[in-house]
UniProtKB/TrEMBL annotation:
UniProt keywords, alphabetically: Membrane, Transmembrane, Transmembrane helix
Signal peptide: none
Residue ranges annotated for the EAL domain, each copy included: 489-742
CDD domains per the UniProt record, alphabetical: EAL
TM spans (from-to): 27-44, 56-75, 82-100, 130-146, 166-189
Pfam families: EAL, GGDEF
InterPro entries per UniProt: Cyclic-di-GMP_PDE-like (IPR050706), EAL_dom (IPR001633), EAL_sf (IPR035919), GGDEF_dom (IPR000160), Nucleotide_cyclase (IPR029787), Rev_trsase/Diguanyl_cyclase (IPR043128)
Lineage: Bacteria, Pseudomonadati, Pseudomonadota, Gammaproteobacteria, Alteromonadales
Name of the protein: Bifunctional diguanylate cyclase/phosphodiesterase
Amino acid sequence: MNFINQFFLLNDDKNAHESIPNWRISALRIILSSGMLLCLAIAFDTFNSALQLNYLWIIALTIGFTSVLFLLLLASKRFYHLCAYILLVALVLASLAINLSLPDLGLAKIGSMLMFVCPSIALMLLGHRVATCFALLNIVPFYMILHDIDLSQYTDIDKQLPDASWYITGVVFLFFNICVPLAVARTIVAAKRLNKATLSSNAYLKSKNELYRTFFAESTIPKIIVDDLGKITDANQQAIDLLKLPKPLKSETLLLSSVMPNIKTCNAGKQEQILHFNNTYQRVVHQQLTDANFCVYEFHDCSAEQSIKGNLAAMEQENRRLRYRDTQTQLPNRDWFELQCDRLIAKYRKGFYVVVAQSANNDYLNIKFGNHNSQAITKTAFKRLRNNIEGPLLCAHIGPGKIAFILGSLNETDLYSALPKIKHTLDEDYNLLGIKSSQSFLFGIAHCPEHGDASCKVVAHAIEALKLANTNDVFSLYDQTNSQSFLEKYEISMLLDEALQQGELTVYYQPKVTASGQCIGLEALARWHSPILGTVSPAVFIPIAEEYRMISRLTDLVIQKVCSQINQWTQQGLNCVPVAINISLIDFTQTDFMSKLVKYLADFTVSPKQIELELTETSLEANQAHSLMLMKTLQAWGFTISVDDFGVGYSNIARLADYPINKLKLDRSLISQVTSSARQQSLVKAIHNMCEELDIKCVSEGVETAEQVSIMADMGCKEFQGFYFSKPMTPEQFFAHVSKKGLKFEHQDSLIKA
């Protein structure tokens, strides 16, 4: 069935021939195939009779016409018109052959009627002109039939087949009733399909017309249609009002360029541009129509948008100006400084030094006076540098308390000759809140291009060098080795930060005992065993925690673990002694320190009398009023207050008389020399006597020999701490010792490993 459909081209969806519709080729093939079968049937049926009667001309005619129709059928698609003409000629010849070969005039007249179908076939296959020609040609057989003209006399044929009447009548009958009707039926089917497609197209065009009305004529957006010559062919009412177009439109003379001279011509694809006309801004969107030489232009009012853009541009200009100013000090900032450095790098081939200066006690100033007030020193320092005629080229405030400047055309010798003068200028007294304040500035130095070929690198290296500056070495030149040490310290800080988040640090406990070894207290000491670094000494990670502002989190972790441990020991039946916890300067100055401390005690049901807080002298001096008030509050709650590491640096017992201190821990540096220096013994004894007068208990820290214990006991010291009695122990080791020997720590017990 599929073969028949394909061969006879019964589908009209897609033409098999470029210029000829399927239904015409299909009708031709139907006529040819049905006529060929008819001729073939006659050839088979007459073959024996004709052969017996020696009518060879009949065999030749039937086989000849069958062959011709078969060849036409094969060539019907490729040579359609030729095959159609030959078919019509073959019908004429067939009619003529019947008249020439039949002596029976009645049958010859029937054969002549075969030509009468030619106009119908010609009309179907070739059109009305060819059909008209064949209609005129049919006058000949019509005339012959009316006048009984016999053509057989010209062939001298006087005999015919016995059943000739059946064949002639049957051929005409079947051709008129089967061959031609089938072709006509195919034509009618094609006509119905065409009519259906036409109706569908009309419906489609109607919907398109509705779309046209909706999206063009009745659209609220101004739209125009322009042809490929730039002429406006159509416009909706909104576009006419906007562009002030004439009514009616005269597309012959109305060019788009005459209405809008600055508009772009329409190219392939969708484009847009913004134009200003008639006191408005219009976004013009234009797009080439598919398979058409027309372009549609849409106009969208974007006046408000352009106004906003203008305001934003002005704001951006202002932000660009503010970008290079520090918001608090209004001084040139780091972005501005690095931009100027980049310009110098591009033009200044001799190289230059970038110097970053900062007050040595910048953190102290921020804590004591607040960040806003301490910035007054930064502003004053900036003005001093700018007013120094022989000073730096550029100055900027690049970070909290940090001032950067450039020194050019200097060798290293001249650099270290110029920097002391600048330091002297910066170190002069400052007036802060009506109080004279002396400062000592530190300097970090980096050279361009030796220490970096980009401004950001040079400035960063100068800041790194500044972090390594101190009171003994105020001018720190960037060094790769020192920088590596700084990076290592930074990496340790990152690991410490993670360790604090994970609660990775542990707490060891070192006993505080009497001269006889009776434990009367413990000191909580943080220990860190990193999975990456291994065991890290407190002397390493505690200064890093203070420098990178993690000391408060470390203190919180220690307090939490101590309170949890006290609770656990209490539940295990251990009679707990007070536990001392070290408190840093940053901890003591935090406003929420007291609330957090009380919360931890409440969480684990720990009494304040079980906690001793060990402070440093600097924590007391940072903010005397705040320190005094906080210490009184802590003592009122029941906490014991002690001062740790007394004797390190500049210490004054008289200053401590102003504070409600319970204990004073003498540093190991004092204790270590009492056995070898009479002068040191006298100093320690004097400190102890003053503490007795002030009702402050003295604690000897770091005792390692029996002689040290004996001398300090003779002076009246009643509390000791050191390796002589015990090293720091884990909670499990301490519990095991107490379970076995009680709270007694004699010299031999100091062999317990930490």
